[in-house]
């Protein structure tokens, strides 16, 4: 990732209010601790000051409220994948790229619709608010989810992002049952409970 992209990613992590050690940030961003310090310097040049906690349990913490613009996909992103899919000969790679293209296209369409006023039912609004809180506080959520294949089943998820696809809201989250990232449609979440356990 580029320097500016990594800097924004680090700011996104710190905006949750959680303290991160330099090594934790370096591991997540896949850079050296020295680069993490460079990102901090760049942010402070822009007027975003990050507190440093000294000692063996120290790290960086952001003690100010920052409104971070969401990074969105553009139409050109999934059109570029279309071109790569056409040029790829390996069928497995082609299948993976097609799935990725569909996800990016969905997020792109959703990001355009986000400019409109949210039209959510009270029930969906509660789910949305709970999941957004879980993302910010890095808390797990227990849900009862309806699947077309297996009916209702209980899941523990670690929410990462919310996005609008066609006419519905989805939550991208790590599913402990499937041990993978899954997209959960809010209208198919029958019950939900914000847990105290963090991730």
Structural commentary:
The chain is built from six helices and seven strands, in the order αααββαααβββββ. By secondary structure, it is of the alpha+beta class. Strands 6-5-4-3-7 form a five-stranded antiparallel β-sheet. Strands 1-2 form a two-stranded antiparallel ribbon. Strand 4 and strand 5 (168-175) form a beta hairpin. Helix 1 (3-14) packs across helix 3 (33-45), helix 2 crosses helix 3 and helix 4 runs antiparallel to helix 5. The chain is globular, with a radius of gyration of 19 Å. The model is unreliable at 113-120 (pLDDT under 50).
Give short descriptive properties of this protein.
single chain, 199 residues, alpha+beta, 5-stranded antiparallel β-sheet, 6 helices
Indicate the topology.
Elements: H1 3-14, H2 22-29, H3 33-45, E1 51-53, E2 59-61, H4 75-87, H5 91-113, H6 122-137, E3 139-147, E4 151-165, E5 168-175, E6 180-185, E7 189-198
Antiparallel strand pairs: 1-2, 3-4, 3-7, 4-5, 5-6
Helix pairs in contact: 1-3, 2-3, 4-5
The fraction of residues assigned to DSSP E strands is: 25-35%
User: Helicity level, as a percent range?
Assistant: 40-55%
**Overall form:** globular
What is the rounded distance between the termini? Answer: 24 Å
- Average pLDDT: 81
